[in-house]
Amino acid sequence: MGQSKKITAVARLCREVRKAWDCFVAFAPRNDSLVIAIILMLFVNAVFAQTITVGAKHFNEGYILAEIMAQLLEDRGFAVQRKFGLGGTLICYQALVNGEIDVYPEYSGTIAQAILKRTDAISFAELQNLLANEHRLELLEAFGFNNTYALTLRAERADELNLKTISELRQHANLRLGLSYEFLERADGWSALAKAYALPQRPVGMEHGLAYQALEQNKIDVTDAYSTDAEIPRYNLAILEDDRGFFPEYLAAPFARLDLDQSAKAVLENLAGRISETEMQRLNAEVAIHKKSFAETAHAFLKKEGLLDQDDFISQTKWMALRHRTLTHIKLTAIALLIAMSLAIPFGVVIYRLPAVARPVLYISGLLQTIPSIALLAFMIPLFGIGVKPAIIALILYALLPILRNTYAALNSIDPNLKKVSVAMGLTVWQRLRHIELPLAVPNMLAGIRTAAVISIGTATLAAFIGAGGLGEPIVTGLALNDPYIIMEGAIPAALLAILAELGFEGLERLLAPRHLLQKAAR
Amino acid sequence: MDPIVFENVHKSYGEKAVLRGVSLSIPRNGVTAIIGPSGGGKSTLVQMINGLLRPDQGRVLIFSQPINYDNLIETRKRIGYAVQGVALFPHMTVEKNISLLAKLETWPEPKIDERVRELIALVNLPAAYLKKYPHELSGGEQQRVGLCRAMMLDPKIFLLDEPFGALDPITRNEIHAEFQRLQKLAARTVVLVTHDLREAFKLADHIVILNHGVIEQVGSGEDILDRPASEFVEQFVHSNLQEEFWGSPKR
To answer: Which SS3 state, helix, strand or coil, does residue A253 take?
Structure first.
C-alpha cells in the first residue's frame, strides 16, 4: 500500500518535471535563448576541459622538460596550466594519480624503484605495459637520453688515452679516480661496479662539487657524474660508455594519466627520441650556467627542432600569457556571475513575493557593495585563504546587488493590470511567474546582470592581489615596479573585455527582449 | 439556485465602506449589468465573484457553493474575465494569449488548435492574426482577442469589468453586436460592469444599480426607466441619458 503510494508519488513528480520542461521549451521567450544557453555551457565546458596541467619535480632538468612539454602543447592550441616545483617523486606521482596534474617528466629507473618498488631489471616496454595495465598510467615514449650514473673524464685526456668505455678503464690502472662519497658508499656504487668490470683502481672520496674543479686542475683523472649534468659540456668532459650495462636505465619520458587527451599525447610523442644526453647537458647548462630562463631554453630548443607552428618567441610568450590571463579573468568573472545569478534571481523573486523582507535584504546587499573591493578581498583571506576561491566569493558578493535589485524592480514594474488578469484567469503562482512575470522582467533583469558583469570584470583585476591571477597580474606587478607599460598590459585587455561584455549583453538583450518592446523602439 | 449569489456582503478599505450589506442573486444565462457612479463599489462587487477580493462579512456562493478561498484556482478557471484595457500579455502572440490556459491545463495540441481557430473565427478575425503580437492590433481587435482568451476554457460565468470603456463609439458598437451574437449562440451567465447606462440597456437582461455600497434597484431596463425605486435612480438615469445625449459629460 505504502509502496504503491510512493510509486504514484514518484510518477507524479516525473510527470511534473516533464510538464515543467515542456512548458519551458514551449514558452521560453524564444527558443534561441535556450540554444544560446546551451552553447554558452558547451563553450565554458570546452574551455575548462581542454586545460592540461603539466607538473614538474623541483630541479633543473624537471623544469626544463616540463616547460618543453607545456610550450609544445600550447603551441598546438592546448590551454596549459603549470604546476612546477612539486616536492619530490612521490608528491608528483600522487598528484598524477589524483588527477591534480595530467603529465610530468619522470625517469624509468625512478618509476621502477621508487614508485613500483622493483629491484629487478625491467625494460622500458615492460614498464609501459605494467603501468598501463595495473596503474592506469601511461609512460609515453622516452625523450631519448639516459640520465644515469656515469664515469667521466676530460675529453682531451680520453682522446689521448683512446679511452671510450668503462671496460677499457681496466688497461689504465694508474688513472686517479676521485668519486663522490655517495657513489663510493652506495651498494650499487663503486664496489659493485669495480667487481662487474674488474677495475683495478683505488678511488679517493671527495665532495661532488669539488670533483669537477679537481678534474679541471688535473688533480684527478676520472669522477662520477650524472650523464646529463651541465658541468659535462662546461668542463668539456667525456663520458665512458657503460658497455656492460651496469648502471640502471633512467630514461626520461612524459608520465601521463591514461585519460589524457589522445591528441595531447600525440603532440607529446613528437618529443620522442629528440633529446640526446649531449642535448640534455646543453639544455641544463643553458639554465645552470648561462642563466637563461626555463621558458627561453625550452622555446629555443623547440624552435631549433622545428617543432613550433607559431614562431616569434617574445610575442608568443606574451600572447600566451595574455591568453592565459584573459582566460583566467573570464573564468573568474563567469563563475562568479553565474553563481551570483543563481543566488540573486531566486532571491529577487522571493523578496518580490514577500515584500516584508525586501527592504532588509536589499539593504544588506547594498551594504556589501559599499565595502571597498580591496578591503573585501582582504577580509576573504582569513576566511578562505588566498587564490581563486576567495576571489570568486568576493566577486559574487559584488555581483549580487545589481542583479537582485534589478530582478526585484523588474518584477515590480510589471503592469498591475496584467498581474490582475493573470491572477483572475486562474494561473498559479508558479505559472504566473514562469509565463508572465519572468518573461516580462527579462530585459530589466538582463540590465542588472550586465551591470554586474562589468563590475566583476573591473573588480577581478584586484583579485591578483590575493593570488587569483587574471588580468590584474600585470597591474599588480606594474604598480610594484612603477612601470606604466606593464600596468597597461593588464588594464587595456581588461577594458576591452568590459567593452566586449557590454556588446555581448546588448546582443543578448536584443535577442531575449520581448518582441513588443523592440518593435516599439523601432517605430 | 442562481449561479452567483451574494449574501449580506460587506467590504471596507480602511475606514471607507465600499459595500454595505449587499445581497444579490445573478440569474443563469442572462446578462446582468452592474451600474452606478464611480466609487459605488461596482468593481469591488465583481472582483468578489472570482475571489480577487474577499468580503469582510457575509459570503459569496458560486454554483451554490461558498467560495473556497484555499482553492481559488479551480473557481477562477470556470470564470472568464475581461477588463478595461484588455491586458493581453504583450510578450505572447495572439495565439499564445488565447491558448495559454488550455496549454497549462495540458489539453492535447490538436484540440487547442481547433478551439483557438474556432474562437478567432467566432469574433470575425482572420486566422493570420494568430501570429501577431498584441501591439500590432487595434483596440477593437485586442478586445476581441481578450474575449477569445476569456472564452478558451468555455467558462459558464463571464465577468466583464468595463471592457468596452476605452473603445471609440464605432468600434464599441461593433463589439456590442459581436457580443450579442455570441450570447445568442451560446448563452452564458455574464456580469457586466459599466458606467454607461445605454450600454446596460442595450446588452443586459437585468440591471443592478449600486450607489455608495448599497443596491438601489434591481430590475429590467424597463423597470429602471419606468419605475425607478428611489430618487437617486431617477436622477442617475436622467443625468446619464442626458449626458449621453449631449455627448460631453460635465461634472
So the answer is: strand
